[in-house]
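Customer ticket, subject: "Can you confirm the structure for Acetyltransferase?"

Message body: Hello, I'm evaluating your service for our small team and ran a test protein. I'd like someone to confirm that this is what the system normally returns, since I don't have a reference to compare against.
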Amino acid sequence: MAYKIRTLEKSEYTVLEDFLYEAIFIPEGVEPPSKDIIKRPELQVYVENFGTRKGDFALCAECDGRIVGAVWTRIMDDYCHIDDDTPSFAISLYKEYRGQGIGTELMMKILEVLKNAGFSRASLAVQKANYAVKMYRKVGFKIVDENEEEYIMVWEC
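Agent reply: Thanks for trying us out. I re-ran your input and got the following:
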């Protein structure tokens, strides 16, 4: 499948809400939540006024002129907050584009962006049952903490 990874333009930041919803891990056999779940304050922190804070970076995957995936970072008080100098991650792809290496490439490219911007680490939270745990390990994230349902993972360059 032909695709390209590029910077998400400011005029396209609204797609982050779609990908925020897509990023919600839904275990097999569980009914997906309503799309308005992303309006909750604990989720809006990922997208609200994106592009205005330190650590706000976003890339997208484009296939046939359509944005099919996005990865973005931001320093925020979210589930995996480490400190006020460490960006947190969000990443997702539309279902039909998963499992093809696009997410891995998005992750590697955004880690390069962070490194070039002077950041030495980044964090993310992921459900233990999420197949993406393997991909996060592959690109260099390590588990630093966990609770009953999630791992907190950190990448350091």
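A couple of notes from the result: The chain has one domain: 4-156. DSSP finds four helices and seven strands in the chain. Feel free to reply with more questions.
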